[in-house]
């Protein structure tokens, strides 16, 4: 029996126990885990320090180290997220619809847990807590496989959660961590169809593509963020400047950060120099621009097709000048990763056209794309941001981790 067999069997058994927990019990458990998380701040941060030190020794960039870093404030935010999930309505048992059919059968469709969720993710250890909270609230067991860069942090976080569960009389197998970060075990997890009901990858394009190509378990794809902002001919340029600066520089290492700027030709001359001057006061940004945009920028190199398709996760921004709204829509849809896209405009018709025509999970008008986040959207936390068009799209909260079951009650009917 392999490690995956053992973890899978334990998760399967745990999922049956979790499915029977009451909402009040689940909420009490989440509140206590939040308290225990904060009480173990020193332990968690000391373990996180090993990961950060290793990353620094391996020459990892400061931007990517920021994804890895835990602080007291970030732990407080994680604890707050646990409490917020506890405060949300429990979807389990919710009636989706109920009716009586022509045969007199009373049919009710209710939300139920998926069962066992597996997650393969990179870098950000806070994902461990977010994933646990959402899975637990929806009665699912979860198996986590983080990257080797965050192994000490993930082990510490899961250890705290499991001890808290045991103290509260809940099976610690509600959340399990694969501590061996070798690819062979990850591959085995991707093919563990006897145990895993759904697999969620969360990380870079290479990871997601590998999981899609290798997994035999159903996958919910959480896509990369090649995020665009289109500055329309009717844009308020002061507003556009603030929005682009925030979306690019506030935290460039995350999937909802702006990677590509599209500008209407009529405002390019006025807008691009203004943006360049203002953004450099926050942080130096390298512009990779087409010939038209390069005329108005002092710190620009000519962009390649690859640049326009790249999620930089860095202080780099591709720039394209277009002739009209339809050209902007075509450009964005061609290069979009279907995550988050935005338009800045005062023209309501252009705003509505952009939102309807753009194929993405989140489409903004006059706001930074940095808001695409389960916590910000009021979902308590997120297990990922789905760019698929299945039952889950955009930030995935509680409902995304449920399925439905039909309950049918009769009075002796048979089908003729």
UniProtKB/TrEMBL annotation:
Catalytic activities: L-glutamate 5-semialdehyde + phosphate + NADP(+) = L-glutamyl 5-phosphate + NADPH + H(+)
Query: Membrane spanning segments where?
Result: none
Q: Tell me which species this is from.
A: Streptococcus sciuri
Query: Key word DNA repair present in the record?
Result: no
Tell me which residues make up the Aldehyde dehydrogenase domain: 6-284, 316-378
Function comment:
Catalyzes the NADPH-dependent reduction of L-glutamate 5-phosphate into L-glutamate 5-semialdehyde and phosphate. The product spontaneously undergoes cyclization to form 1-pyrroline-5-carboxylate.
What NCBIfam families does the database record attribute to this sequence? PRK00197.1, proA
EC code(s) of this entry:
1.2.1.41
Its subcellular locations are: Cytoplasm
Keyword Transmembrane helix recorded: no
- Give the family per the record: Belongs to the gamma-glutamyl phosphate reductase family.
Citing just one GO molecular function, the answer is: glutamate-5-semialdehyde dehydrogenase activity
| Biochemical pathway | Amino-acid biosynthesis; L-proline biosynthesis; L-glutamate 5-semialdehyde from L-glutamate: step 2/2
Instruction: Indicate what this protein is called per its UniProt record.
Output: Gamma-glutamyl phosphate reductase
Key words of the record: Amino-acid biosynthesis, Cytoplasm, NADP, Oxidoreductase, Proline biosynthesis
Alphabetical list of InterPro entries matching this protein = Ald_DH/histidinol_DH (IPR016161), Ald_DH_C (IPR016163), Ald_DH_N (IPR016162), Aldehyde_DH_dom (IPR015590), Glu-5-SA_DH (IPR012134), GPR_dom (IPR000965)
């Amino acid at each position: 029996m392999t490690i995956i067999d053992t973890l899978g069997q334990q998760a399967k058994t745990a999922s049956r126990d979790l499915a029977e927990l009451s909402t009040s019990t689940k909420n009490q458990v989440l509140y206590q885990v939040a308290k225990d998380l904060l009480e173990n701040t020193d332990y968690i941060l000391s373990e996180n320090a090993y990961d950060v030190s290793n990353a620094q020794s391996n020459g990892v960039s400061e931007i990517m180290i920021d994804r890895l870093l835990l602080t007291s404030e970030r732990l407080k935010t994680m604890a707050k997220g646990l409490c917020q999930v506890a405060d949300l309505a429990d979807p389990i048992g919710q009636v989706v619809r109920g009716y009586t059919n022509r045969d007199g059968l009373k049919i009710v469709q209710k939300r139920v847990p998926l069962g066992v969720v597996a997650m393969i993710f990179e870098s950000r250890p806070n994902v461990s807590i977010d994933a646990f909270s959402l899975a637990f609230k929806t009665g699912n067991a979860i198996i986590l496989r983080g990257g080797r860069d965050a192994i000490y942090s993930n082990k510490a976080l899961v250890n705290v959660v499991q001890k808290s569960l045991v103290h509260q009389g809940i099976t610690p197998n509600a959340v399990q961590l694969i501590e061996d970060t070798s690819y062979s075990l990850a591959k085995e997890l991707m093919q563990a169809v006897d145990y895993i009901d759904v697999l969620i990858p969360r990380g870079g394009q290479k990871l997601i593509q590998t999981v899609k190509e290798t997994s035999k378990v159903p996958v919910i794809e959480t896509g990369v963020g090649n995020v665009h902002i289109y500055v329309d001919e009717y844009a308020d340029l002061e507003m556009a400047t603030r929005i682009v600066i925030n979306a690019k520089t506030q935290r460039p290492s995350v999937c909802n950060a702006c990677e590509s700027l599209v500008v209407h030709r009529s405002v390019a001359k006025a807008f691009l120099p203004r943006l360049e001057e203002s953004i450099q006061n926050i942080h130096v940004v390298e512009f990779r621009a087409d010939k038209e945009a390069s005329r108005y920028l002092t710190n620009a190199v000519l962009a390649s097709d690859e640049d326009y398709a790249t999620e930089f996760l860095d202080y780099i921004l591709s720039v394209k000048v277009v002739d009209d709204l339809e050209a902007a829509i075509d450009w964005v849809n061609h290069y979009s990763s279907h995550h988050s896209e935005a338009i800045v405009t005062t023209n309501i018709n252009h705003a509505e056209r952009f939102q309807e025509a753009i194929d993405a999970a989140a489409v903004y008008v006059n706001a930074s794309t940095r808001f695409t986040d389960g916590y910000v959207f009021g979902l308590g936390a997120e297990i990922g941001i789905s760019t698929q068009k299945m039952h889950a799209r955009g930030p995935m909260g509680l409902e995304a981790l449920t399925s439905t079951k039909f309950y049918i009650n009769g009075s002796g009917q048979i089908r003729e």
